[in-house]
Amino acid sequence: MRKPHRRVLAIFSLTLLIFFLARVGLFLVYLEDFHDLTTLEVLRAFARGLLFDASIITLITGGPLLLMLLPFRFAHHRHWLSFWTWTNFVLLALFLLLLAGDIVYFGFVHRHAGPEIVALGGDVGLMLDMALGSYWWTLLLFLAACVGLFFLWRRLFRHADAEVGRFLPRLAILLVALLSVAVLIRGGFGRKPLDIVDAFVENRPSAAYLSLNGPFAMSRALLNTRKVKSDFFAWDEAVRRTQELVLAPGERLLAGEDYPLLRARTATTASKPNVVVLMLESWDAAHIDTLRRGMGLKPFGVTPNFDALARDGLLFTRFYANGERSMDGLAALIAGIPTLPGTAYLGMGMEQNRMAYLGHMAQQEGYETIFLQSSKRGSFHVDSIAAMAGFTRYLGSEDIPATGHSQNITERGAWDHDTFQEANKLFEQAKKPFVGFVFTASTHLPFQSPGERWQKYPPDSLEHRFLNSLYYADWALGEFIAAAKKVRLLRQHHFHSHRRSRERFRRQVRRRAEPAPRATAGRCARPQARHHHAYRRTGGRDSHTH
Q1: Closest by Cα among 90, 93, 103 to 24
Q2: For the chain, which terminal residue's Cβ has fewer other Cβ atoms within 10 angstroms, N or C?
Q3: Can you tell me the mean pLDDT for 334-359?
């Protein structure tokens, strides 16, 4: 091939073809793992897999390929082209090794390699012994493939000087190639670079596993694994302490070492209350008045509605933030998974594990599942996470109409008030019991509020701007609760003030055929990093904050 750009395209295309064939091999070898997929879903998984293949291929080989396109005369010499051509062959051989290893690994865990590969680093010798002993045929296939590729490579890319054209066309080709490399590595033009969670758009884990490839999953595992230096309890002690913490009244532990936290609970009701989880961005104990008073601190006066919910609901004063980022909290809320030291979280590789998710469990119980996010679609990969977790309906800020209460717009997406009102509308339209999840954003940086009405403090500092945004968000929360009560209670010609005592309300809901919605508030017992928490609304029973 006398033209460098043709050589580059041929190398890239051949590498992409090998990844495609590896996916075909994975599908055929582990057909049972993908039996739940329709033909159309399989085709979509293969098509989506091209994005992941192109991303990792470009990330690893993009540099050598671009060096072959330099517009200078020396870059067209056969020695220069030969060196980078065979460099790409070595990289392709490495890809083959990783793909072969991933296919073997998939047979053990039924998913691609994740963060655990870091922990397995000290057992490389043992793993090689196992591979050579039990999977020698894989090694033979790998060697045969390398030999075949060697001869094909030598035939396709003969060592000859490339044609030297004019400088400007060569420069244009290089610029186009640079742009293409950047787009392919990111996986497109989305707000966030392509990540593992983007494979989980079919609401079927098997489709995601078919779309992913081993090298891509391994690269993300290595990038996202956090180094931790900590001392841990011994296993037995850790299990004992955790059992004491999680065991609730009316529960009993089930025997079994494999699942030491598995518990059974005696059913107390046959009803199916609606459940609403609010993930409130950056709400923390240091700024919520009802918690500040408990810590002996002077109130800021910006959370009157939350304080009212705390008085009437269940307030957890020893509830701590699960992590330092929104994604840590999201994993805890929809999967019940705490932030584990040194491991990835949802959106960064954790989703490869087979876990129970709130949405899927709700569907199994006959619930509708609805997810609303105040920020833009795709922010933090939440759209993919919601689909993966079993939420059949998802809305981002682009789907939420403005109510006109302010002429301002927020940089984070929809205002909390607009999100809450849209949520209430969708919840009212639900044809069966529902689980709703609302992720707010107005209290995220840059801490905006929609008008002077909520300027309780002069916006002359970051702290004051946050307090003003919290004041607005609290108002929006109050409006949401008021609207929810009005819809549910007036339908039955009843009205219940949230200022009534808890005991009186309990007596009232016992007499109702359809319980009234309740709100629960829960926050940290001590100042935490500004982070999200949530409350749950149920149909007439005290509920728990998560």
Answers
A1: 103
A2: N
A3: 73
Measured between alpha carbons, how far is 178 from 66 in angstroms, rounded to an integer? 7
Enumerate the H helices of 187-336 as residue ranges. Answer: 205-211, 214-224, 235-246, 289-294, 304-312, 326-335
C-alpha distances in angstroms, 84 versus 62, 64, 79, 87, 287? 11, 6, 9, 5, 58
Q: Which amino acid is at 94?
A: L
Q: Which of 421, 423, 422, 444 is nearest to 435 (CA)?
A: 423
Q: What is the pTM of this model?
A: 0.58
Residue 160's alpha-carbon distances to 111, 152, 279, 412, in angstroms, are 44, 16, 62, 55
pLDDT in tens, 489-538: 434 333 333 333 333 333 333 333 333 333 333 333 333 333 333 333 33
- Boundaries of every domain in the chain: 4-224, 235-264, 318-355
Q: What pLDDT is stored for residue 521 in this prediction? A: 37
Q: For the stretch 232-243, what's the b/e string if a residue is b when 16 or more beta carbons lie within 10 angstroms of its beta carbon?
A: eeeeeeeeeeee
Q: Of 122-126, 278-282, 421-425, where does mean pLDDT reach its minimum?
A: 122-126
Beta partners for 280? 533
Residue showing tokens 């840059």: 446
Report the pLDDT value the prediction gives residue 59, as an integer from 0 to 100: 92
As a whole number, the mean pLDDT across the chain is 78
Q: Quick one: how far is CA 96 from the chain centroid?
A: 29
Cis omega (within 30 of 0) for bond into 273: no
Query: Do 447 and 469 meet the contact criterion of CB atoms below 8 Å apart?
Result: yes
Listed in sequence order, the residues at least 6 apart from 151 whose beta carbon sits closer than 8 Å to its beta carbon are none
